[in-house]
Each structure stands twice: as C-alpha cells, then as structure tokens.
Specification:
835 residues, alpha+beta, Immunoglobulin-like, TATA-Binding Protein, four-stranded antiparallel sheet, 9 helices, FANCB, Fanconi anemia group B protein
Length: 835
C-alpha cells in the first residue's frame, strides 16, 4: 500500500475506499504532492488491496491543504463521484485559491471549478449534490457550483445555519437558518434553495427551537403534497439527543451516549432493517436501530466511519477505521466491517478488545435453494389438498341430493365413479387383484429416466466464466434444487477440486415432440384416491427443455494455460406427490468437460449482431442473463397513463432488440461491464414492470433518465427478492393467502349460523321447563318435535342457508384475495417464459 501522511481523508463509493492526502517533499525541495489512492476489500486475505494510486498535483508551495472531502452527485454527468476541495495560499500572499476536484475514474481526478477568496474558510465546509460547496463566513452563507460559475452569497443573513439536501427532488440543496433579531423579531425559521433562489418555510423541516442546537441533519424522505412539503428528518443536537421530525413536528427522541456529534449516516441492512450511525468528536461512534431508535452498540478510538457495500453482498456494511499511532502511513491496518446482523470482519483490533471472529462460510445460496424446494413441495401439496376438498364437496352434495331424491320418490341420477376419479367400495375379485398389484407397484420406487444433456457450452466474460447446459426432461418429473458445479482436473492429485458457482434455471418454450404411445402399455388400474398427473399418458406433451447456467470466477481456474473442467448437474427428484413429505434423493449427472485456453474476449455473435436467430445467440443471451445483476421495478402511475415506455427505451442510443428473444432490448457499450439488458412488461395502461440486467451504476443512471420521461406522479418501487425465485415465492404466498382466507371466512360464516340456531333452540326450550308425564300425548308430541328439529339441523348442516349480506361480504373478500393471486400468476408467467 502506498505510504501516506499522518491524517489522510477517506471516502467510500461503490464498495471501494478512496484516500486523499498530501506528502511533503524533502526539506530542501519545498514541494508538496497531493495523492489519490483507491483501495478495495479482499475477503480472502481480510485486507484492503491497492487498486491504484495517482499524484494529483505537485506544487512548489508547501501550503497545500485539504479542506473537505465527500462523495456527491455530479448533475452534469449524472453520477455520484468523490469530491475533494484543496486550498493553497497565493504566490503573492494576496489570498487563497480553492479548487474542487472530482474523480473521473479510479486513477484520475480533474478540476471541476476554482475560485479565489481573500480569506481562509474557517470551520466546516459542506459538499452537497451538484457538486455544491457551502460555507459560512462573517454571518453570511456563501456557495459555488459548476452551474453558478462563481461564488455567490445567499441574500439572507443568518445567525445560525444548517445545510442539507432533499432526496428525490433534483437540485434541492437547502439552507435553514435564523435571521438576526433586528430583521426577524419573531424568530421564524427560514429556508432557502441556493440553486433556484427560492425561499420557503423552514419550519416544515426543522422547527425554530432546534436550529441553533442542530449539529447534523439527515432528510429521510421529502415530497410535495397539495403544494405543501412533507418530510421525515433525523437531527442530532448538541444536547446529546437524536430527534425524529415529521413535517417539522417532533415524533420521537433518543438520548445519545456522547457529546459533540459530527455526522450521521443511514445503513440499509436489507431484510434485517436499517441503522443510524452517528460519529462524535474524539473518535466516538454509536449505532441505533431506525425502527425503534434504540442504541445497538457503540465504539471508541475510531478514526473514520464509512457506509457502503464493501463485501458485494447487496446490503450495506459499516467500516470503522480505528486509530493506530504505532503504524504510520498505513491508515487501513486496523478496521472492522460489520452490519450488526451476522457479518463481522476485523483486522488488527487486539489493542481495542477481543478480536472479532470471522463468520463461517456463507451458505446463503444453499439456504435459498432449500427454502425454495420446501416452498415448491408445500405448494404442490396445498394444490392437491384443494383438489381433494373440491372432490369431497361434490361427492357429499351428490350423496345428499341422491338421498333427498330417494326420500321424495324421485329417480336419483348418479355420475359414474370414474368421473370423480373414485371407485366403488365393493369391487370384483379381478379388480381387487389389480388394485393389490397396483399398490405394490406404487410402493416400489419407480425408476425415472434422468435428464438428457443436449448441449454443453461456456463463455468467458472478463474475470468470470459461464458454463451452461441444455436439458431435455420429462415435464411430469418433479425436480427441485437444480444447479451446476464445476470440478477441476489439474493432474496434481486424484481428488478433483470443486469450484464454487452460482446457478440459474430457465425453461425453454420449445417442447420436444411427445413419444408415441406403446400398444404394450398396460391399462391404468383403478385407484381409491384422486388420480395424479401421469406423464406416461399418450395424450400428454410430456417432454420439455431446460437451460441451466452457472457462473464462477476465473481466478481458481488459472492453474495452467489450458484448464479442463468436469461439469456436474445436481437435482432432487421425487416419484409422486405422496412422497413429497419424505426426504428427497439428490442425484448427479455428468454433463461433460469444457476445455478452455484463457484467451479471448466477450465479443460474441449476440453483441456483434443481435438480429441473428441461432442457437449460439440464444446461449449468449443466457450467459448475459447469468453474468449481469438483475433488478426488477414495479412502476405505477395513478393519475396518467404511462405512455410508450417501450418506444422510449428503443430510441436510446445503441439500443437494439434481440430477435431470438424479442422481449429483451440490448444496450451495448464498450465491454461486458457496460452492457444492459432491458425487459418491459405492460400490465395495465397505468402499471408496468421493468427488468434491468446491468451494473448498479448503470441502473441508477437509467432510472434517473426514465423518471424524467414518466409522469411526475409515477412511483417506481423495487420488487424485493427478485434476484432468485421472488416471483414464484410471491405466487405461492398469494395462493396460500387465498386458501387461508377462504377457510377462515367459511368457518366464521358457518360458526355464526350455528350460534344463531343454538340461541333459537335455547329460547324455544326455555318457555316450558316442566317435564311431561311419561307416555302422555304431550310427551309424544315433544319427542316428535325434538326429532324433527334434529332432522332439520342435520339438513341445515349438510346444506346450510346463510344471510345474503354475509355471503356477499364473503364473496367480495375472497375475490379481492383472488385478484392478488391472479396478478402474481401473471407476473410469474411473464417472467419465466422465454419466448
């Protein structure tokens, strides 16, 4: 690692660490170097590795200092980039020259703007979106940005001021403050937008008493409703207190363990919730849960705190850089990476307490596959139970109708038992023998043919390799947990090494022709339960095709110039639905070998000509879908129709439709890391779903331009859990909710009916409690009435009559739940079918 000065400035962006510092030259040279260093965390070695360093500038003057350093949104390039403000004294001593530098790539910074001041900025200077630099001097607030082009003064004089920015609103950098007593005797909070020159009521963000004591502020949400600003704000005060505001009204408070707060950051831990991380003076840090505002933990001796996805797992982690005066020039030799939810990586913390143990190897993929398998088997059993309930209801209703016809003297018409998949209770001897032989056959495990491997291919994309297979299998063969693994054959030992991979499964729409039925196939014996789906029937289209892909890094494979790898298919097979409750048997199929010289690029036929319709192009598309990260967004426009979103996407530069799968649009730039695959599904004129396969930075840039095209009232919500089988999970949960709602509603309806009947009987029986004389006419009459009531109660239970209003209420609730299930089924079909 490059040796830096004693106090470098550190920022984080996209999981990387950027350090800025200046080094003094030799005593006789009088030169000063401003250095930029990029680091990335390596989980294997548990250290930060050097990704490159660059000398920003060399000045003959030794008075070059770093004023501020922060990541901010560059409105011209529409990207978030590290920004650093440096100051140097003028050569003639006539002022101070300030420069704001932005990072263009990992090894080059360029000057965004420069300005000169007759004084030196004292206190904290804030870098906000734009990038915009704000500071206070002599009771006034000044700002400058590339859009302003010069240093400007806010036309309001504040005694106290707070700087911040509103999320989701472009260019909304704001200044809150209290005007001087002579100008504003009421002390009302005023706000000002420097980029637009508009003033507003600052009490909608912070009330008047908190302006003077607020040290740092974080705006969680802000939107305009009926012309008024609605906001959710977290403020940290100098009174050791964290305060939560909603539209300027205090909603909750929390005491803090330290004084002199300096910064507050939000940590998104995914499904585990969110945290607030607050930095204090003298190296104190504490973390609070967002939902409860309860302190989770605290640290001391911290040099700097950063929030980013350093592990590349899709959620945020906290990076705590601890002070270590014994190691000079190495600022990241003592750190802790944690999210307080199971992730903890530490290095060099012996002096600050017990060393955090490294977590066990992550098995998230295996856990998700196991949960998905259980969910699929549970859904299958649930659907079968629903079918059994429907058959039972029909048979009971037919039996009741037949009994009523027999009592009334009418001829009862019964359907054939085979129509319901049932047989009579009394069978002939031949049929009993057939059933006995059938039960023996069902007890024996059936040997189903394993999936047939049609083709094996692989692609190399930068530092990753994609391996895929096309399978032909029985559509009625229930399989789960399908994945691929790669085994290396290096020739150095008898035991091959297993390479960790991530697998994806896609069903191909082109089915193979069903084999002709054989005349020697014995007839299916009768069964005493509902007949299950059998792929052996002649009228079934009983074969389908599946594509399974796996991606892994090339580094474990680079043992020699030519690598031979065995590709193994893993899946779980069950014989029938009744065996889903038992433990499934994992099976393995050898798909073949891939031999690859690690040379070449990713310029596949698909990237050269997306209009081709060949199997190789389809393999390229499957490889891209495996390599690229996937995001799914649900777009809702309650006030206006969405418009031609598909046409707007196709008009973008470099966008072409993939002919082999027309629902996908390809935006091709230089290199596989700049590729983008888009898929737009119009659900209704006011709703749609957008699938994006690309890097995180490109997704943010694309969404920013898409929001400018969509109506202002549109909402774009990410669909959670879409990186795996999120649609299948949503569909199964909707079906489960539908069944539970129907069961509870019918049970409640019948229960209320029975309670009414019981109350009625108690009222009738309560009129005359004197028992009649045995053998009298009155006693016989009461016995006859009791018998008739029992008959009527039995008839009511078999065919209950309920109130029309209650039945309509039940129907409406069930229909509302079924609508959610239909929408989930539509999304599942649109996502899984590959046209």
């Amino acid at each position: 690692m490059e040796t830096l000065g004693s106090n470098p400035r550190i920022v984080s962006l996209c999981g990387k660490i950027f350090l800025f510092d200046h080094k003094r030259g030799k005593s006789n040279s009088g030169k000063s170097e401003l250095i930029s260093l990029c680091l990335s965390y390596d989980r294997g070695s548990n250290t930060f590795l050097d990704d490159g360093a660059a000398v920003i500038s060399r000045k003959t003057s030794a008075q070059v200092d770093i004023v501020a350093c922060k990541c901010a949104l560059d409105l011209q390039r529409r990207v978030t980039t590290p920004c650093v403000v440096v100051c140097q004294r003028g050569e003639r001593g006539d002022g101070f020259l300030y420069s704001l530098l932005t990072l263009c790539d990992s090894h080059r910074l360029e000057s965004c703007f420069e300005f000169k001041l007759p004084y030196q900025i004292k206190g904290a200077a804030s870098i906000l979106q734009g990038p915009t630099l704000l500071w206070s001097h002599a009771g006034h607030v000044f700002y400058t940005s590339p859009q302003a082009g010069e240093v400007r003064q806010i036309p309001l004089q504040f005694s106290h001021s707070v700087f911040g920015e509103l999320p989701l609103l472009r260019g909304q950098v704001f200044v809150l403050g209290l005007q001087n007593e002579c100008d504003q005797p009421s002390g009302r909070t005023l706000g000002y937008f420097p980029q637009t020159g508009e003033a507003f009521d600052g009490a909608l963000i912070l009330p008047h008493p908190y302006i003077g004591i607020t040290r740092c502020i974080l705006v969680l949400s802000a939107e305009k409703v009926d012309g008024a600003l609605k906001s959710a704000v977290i403020a940290v005060t100098s009174h050791q207190q964290l305060v939560y505001f909603q539209s300027g009204v205090v909603k909750d408070t929390c005491p803090l363990p330290f004084q002199q707060p300096e910064d507050i950051q939000l940590v998104n831990c995914g499904r585990n919730g969110c945290l607030f991380v607050i930095s204090f003076h003298r190296g104190h840090v504490c973390a609070l849960w967002k939902e409860t505002l309860q302190i989770a933990t605290q640290w001391s001796g911290v040099s700097s705190v950063h929030v980013d996805d350093f592990l590349g797992c899709g959620t945020d982690q906290i990076l705590l850089v601890f002070k270590d005066e014994s190691v000079i020039g190495q600022p990241l030799e003592n750190f802790l990476i944690t999210d307080l939810c199971g992730i903890s990586y530490s290095h060099g913390q012996d002096a600050y307490g017990p060393k955090q143990s490294s977590p066990p190897p992550e098995n998230n993929l295996l856990t998700l596959q196991a949960l998905e398998s259980r969910l699929q088997s549970g859904l299958t059993v649930l659907q079968e139970l629903r079918g059994e309930v429907r058959v039972k209801d029909r048979v009971v209703n037919q039996a009741v109708q037949a009994l009523a016809d027999a009592v009334s003297g009418r001829e009862a018409v019964l359907p054939q038992p085979e129509q319901e998949g049932l047989v009579a209770l009394w069978d002939s001897d031949d049929e009993s023998k057939d059933e006995a032989s059938d039960d023996k056959m069902q007890d024996m495990p059936a040997v189903s043919p394993e999936p047939h491997v049609d083709k094996l291919w692989h692609r190399v994309a930068e530092d990753r390799i994609v391996v895929g297979v096309i399978l032909t299998m029985d559509s009625a063969l229930p399989v789960a947990s399908v994945s691929l693994s790669i085994l290396t054959e290096t020739g150095q030992g008898s035991t091959p090494a297993v390479i960790q991979t991530q697998s994806q499964v896609s069903w191909l729409p082109t089915p193979c022709p069903s084999p002709s039925s054989s005349a020697s196939t014995p007839p299916e014996p009768a069964a005493k339960r509902s007949k299950q789906h059998n792929a052996g029937t002649p009228n079934d289209l009983n074969t389908c095709r599946m594509a399974v892909t796996a991606v892994t890094r090339l580094i474990p494979l680079l043992n020699s110039g030519c690598v031979k790898c065995h590709v193994m298919l893993h899946y779980v097979q069950r014989q029938d639905a009744s065996s889903s409750l038992s433990s499934p048997t994992p099976l393995v199929v050898h798909c073949g070998q891939v031999s690859r010289e690690i040379r070449g690029d990713f310029q596949t036929p698909l990237l050269k000509n997306p209009k081709l319709k060949t199997d190789e192009v389809k393999e390229d598309l499957l490889s891209l879908l495996t390599v690229l990260d996937r995001w799914v967004f649900h777009i809702d426009s309650p006030d206006h129709s969405l418009g031609d979103v598909d046409g707007w996407i196709r008009r973008r530069v470099g966008c072409e439709r993939i002919e082999v799968s027309p629902q996908y649009l390809l935006i091709n730039s230089s290199g596989p890391s700049a590729l983008m695959l888009l898929r737009w599904s119009q659900i209704t004129p006011f709703q749609g779903e957008l699938s994006v396969h690309s890097s995180e930075l490109q997704v943010l840039q694309f969404l920013d331009s898409l929001l400018a095209f969509l109506p202002a009232s549109c909402s774009v919500r990410p669909v959670h859990g879409t990186r795996g089988q999120g649609a299948a999970q949503t569909f199964s949960l909707a079906l489960e909710k539908e069944v539970v709602s129907l069961r509870d509603s019918v049970s409640l309806l019948l229960h209320e009916k029975e309670e009414e009947e019981d109350d009625k009987r108690r009222r009738i029986s309560g009129h005359d409690e004197t028992p009649p004389e045995p053998g009298s006419v009155e006693g016989l009459q009461r016995c006859r009435e009791a018998w008739q009531q029992d008959v009527e109660r039995s008839r009511t239970r078999l065919s209950p009559l309920v109130d029309v209003g209650r039945y309509r209420k039940l129907t409406r609730s069930v229909l509302n739940v079924q609508l959610d299930g239909d929408l989930a089924a539509l999304l599942e079909i649109q996502r899984t079918l590959l046209h």
